[in-house]
Amino acid sequence: MTDSHILNIGFDDTDSPKGMCTTFLAYKIVDVLKKQETEFLDFPKLVRFNPNIPWKTRGNGAVSMKIRTKNPSKIKGKIKHLVKKYSDINNGANPGLVFYENEIPKHFTKFSKLALWQLINRNQAKKFARKNNIEFFYKGNGQGLVGAIGAIGYDFKDHTLELLSYRKNSKFGKDRKLSATSVKTMQEKTQPNTFNSFDNKKNRVLITPHGPDPVFYGIRGENIDTLLHATKILKTDEKLAGHLIFKSNQGTGDHLENEFNVT
């Protein structure tokens, strides 16, 4: 792709306890970008940051993408529109969106590592963005900028994959009906290449969320073929909208590298 630009995109905090999901926004963005003259340079990245953040909605996950495009201005405009459309701002979401052209400088990873275990406020994020010529956009108080910047700078020393399937709009907020037996069977047939799908001790499904967000289920694993095979084992009568596979830091131990001294 001649005369093209590398564009890094990061976003976070688009959901609220009442709906939406940052990964669902990623699914919608990918759907739009597929129709543009765009080359995806990696999987979308789902980065789980500090799990102890008191204002997190669910898993404190931010998303980033790395693409090549001839028209970054057009792409930025489309993504801004999607962030506005698929952020639950009326119910407390504070979305942050960042763009950075060309390769990510190595010092960005320091910000990302801190976000794994420390509290970083939005003013620190804005200061970092301005200092490093990161183009940013936000709604509400802009707390999502922390995750957005952290996601584009995250350095994956190790990774797992997560396949997230999404519901049709008419099903948002309704009970998820997924055969527990099929989940148990899926885990038995795909381990160790999938993990954390079914709790045998408590006889409990672990891949379905419980809130009104658009996710139907999420399968965590080690390779694409196994994840796709796993979806064929699961049984539900619900017609799903589609799925997206993310590169993730879940199950890698990245969150366990720092210790607090409690005295």
Automatic annotation (TrEMBL):
Domain TiaS FLD: residue ranges: 142-255
Domain TiaS-like TCKD: 9-137
InterPro entries: TiaS-like_TCKD, TiaS_FLD
TM region(s), chain numbering: none
Name of a matching Pfam family: TiaS_TCKD
Protein name: Uncharacterized protein
Organism, scientific name: Candidatus Nitrosarchaeum limnium BG20
Lineage, highest ranks first: Archaea, Nitrososphaerota, Nitrososphaeria, Nitrosopumilales, Nitrosopumilaceae
